[in-house]
Amino acid sequence: MFWSKKNGNKSQEFQEILKLRSELSFKGIQFDKALFQLLTPLFEENPLLFKDWKDLQNKVLQAVEEKTWTIQDEIEFIESYVNLWKIAKSDELHTQLTIKGNQQDIQIFPLITFGAIQNALQLGYNSMREHPLKIRIQLSQSTLQLEVSNRVNHYLQNQADNMQFEYWKNRLEYRYPEKHQLFVNSNSNIFKSTLILQIA
Question: What is the model's pTM?
Answer without folding.
Answer: 0.89
